[in-house]
């Protein structure tokens, strides 16, 4: 397994391009299953998760070609051959559950392996299943698979009232409802930019959708969807991650394509910590010129709140802040796995349940550390960039799920970072 070696090397300066969003692309790709006409995505990120979704769609009979070095995905589902999403692929990536709604809507049935939990929490799929039931589907859990069956005339519009906000369940319900008969109302829907991006793409394909970006989405089902070409929205989590690089190391970095509206709560916390963020026509210019940042409290929430996917990286910043910061993780029950690793680097962190108290230290020190999940991996790299000496981040395969060319992008800013190939 590969490792990443990082050596603290002072301030970072320059320009970094931000890719299309992993989490948008992973829901836009299954949308191809809703139509027999081609769907082309531009601005796709080059990530292992995208390759996993490609394999999953291909296993269902969809054609998926990566063009322009992977930045363009040309897809067509005119000849689907299977409705079974197999354990061998689904186990690699939770977002595989997003084929459920489209398959059910188009083919009338689907069998999808349960994705199971992962390092950050149990992550059940009950809300996805309840949403499909609200559209008339019969759901059965057998042999580790979700067996879903639409009524004889196909899915019917219905009211889906989510008890808690779920990004994935909103996406599955939204896609399924586009081909259901009649009107569907999604209440307490997720409002993330990735949901807005999905709704825009579906509308291009001919879907009738109103209200995306608010907590009530109304979908009027249509008989069929057509083809479309759609550019994937900017990855706000990759954006936030690179914004933290000059915040932690000092210097000035422009994140190309970044917009404050994608990350308002995060930008507000950076401002409170003493990091400057300026929106320019090219993107977001971020700098930390004087001394240490100040401690700030952070609570993760669904959009438009502070994203859970930036909590680990923000913790890395706050490890060297002046004062005591309190981070509350409200989305996932086990998302502080990076804390013990940061402690190995000299951070002072006390974790109690979903709360972490971080007492800033003047300087972190390099150490061998273990990456436990995607955002934990990159938080350790950020911490290593600001630490004295060498940090060896082991087991970085999660990193490649969500960050393309991370070593090249950080090296271009002046970081000392290299990948050590494993066996
Ligand atoms: C591929 C993708 O887009 N992943 C993102 C998506 O994950 P994902 O869509 O899996 O996250 P959800 O928004 O569904 O999860 C929110 C909370 O709801 C719970 N829950 C969810 C579904 C369900 O059926 N039952 C249930 O209890 C989860 O365990 C979690 O506690 O949103 C998360 C929250 O912003 C992000 O961290 C992930 O990066
Ligand atoms: C948790 C994440 O992804 P996934 O939902 O794909 O596991 C993430 O992107 O931080």
From TrEMBL:
Phosphoenolpyruvate binds at residues 22-23. The modification 2-(S-cysteinyl)pyruvic acid O-phosphothioketal is found at residue 118. It is an enzyme of class 2 (transferase). Its EC number is 2.5.1.7. One of its GO terms (biological process) is peptidoglycan biosynthetic process. It comes from the Bacteria. One of its GO terms (cellular component) is cytoplasm. The active site is at residue 118. Keywords: Cell cycle, Cell division, Cell shape, Cell wall biogenesis/degradation, Cytoplasm, Peptidoglycan synthesis, Pyruvate, Transferase. Pfam families: EPSP_synthase. It catalyses: phosphoenolpyruvate + UDP-N-acetyl-alpha-D-glucosamine = UDP-N-acetyl-3-O-(1-carboxyvinyl)-alpha-D-glucosamine + phosphate. It is found in: Cytoplasm. The keyword Lipid metabolism does not apply. The keyword Membrane does not apply. One of its GO terms (molecular function) is UDP-N-acetylglucosamine 1-carboxyvinyltransferase activity. Pathway: Cell wall biogenesis; peptidoglycan biosynthesis. UDP-N-acetyl-alpha-D-glucosamine binds at residues 94, 123-127, 309, 331. InterPro entries: Enolpyruvate_Tfrase_dom, Enolpyruvate_Tfrase_sf, MurA_subfamily, RNA3'P_cycl/enolpyr_Trfase_a/b, UDP_GlcNAc_COvinyl_MurA. Its main location: cytoplasm. Belongs to the EPSP synthase family. MurA subfamily. Cell wall formation. Adds enolpyruvyl to UDP-N-acetylglucosamine. HAMAP family: MurA. This is UDP-N-acetylglucosamine 1-carboxyvinyltransferase. It comes from Maliponia aquimaris. The lineage of its organism: Bacteria, Pseudomonadati, Pseudomonadota, Alphaproteobacteria, Rhodobacterales.
